[in-house]
Amino acid sequence: MPCSLPIPTWRGSWLAAAGLAAVLLARGQVIEAEALAHRALAADAQRHRVWHILALALERQGRLGEALAAAERAAQLAPAEDAYPALVARLAAESSGK
Predict the structure, then answer these.
(1) CA torsion angle for 63, 15, 5, 20 (degrees, to 10)?
(2) CA angle at 76 for the pair 70 and 23, rounded to the nearest 5°
(3) String of DSSP letters for 34-83
(4) Is 29 helix (H, G, I), strand (E, B) or coil?
């Protein structure tokens, strides 16, 4: 079900959308989390944590190729973040069937 929650349209709204996406992801509402992650990225596509949330939401839906691309973007934006290379490697292995 698409998320119909109102998210402010001002530039800083990525934070509200990302926070809610993280909560929804933790609750297992992955489709709604994905939708809000996309909204957050539309406001500011340079937020590595939002790309990470999107990667996890896509992975939980079995959309491994898309999840890998999102994880790779998170890793590009924050090369010092230790968790992202492991996520990229895991998704690459899963998406190739290894």
Answers:
(1) 60
(2) 45
(3) HHHHHHHHHH-TT-HHHHHHHHHHHHHTT-HHHHHHHHHHHHHH-TT-TH
(4) coil
Q: Which pLDDT score is estimated for 1?
A: 47
Prediction pTM value? 0.86
Span 37-77, pLDDT tens digits: 998 998 899 999 999 999 999 999 999 999 999 999 999 99
Q: Which amino acid, 37?
A: A
Q: Are 32 and 67 in contact (CB under 8 A)?
A: no
Residue with tokens 């297992």: 28
10 Å Cβ neighbour count for 26? Answer: 11
How far apart CA 67 and CA 58 sit, in angstroms, is: 5
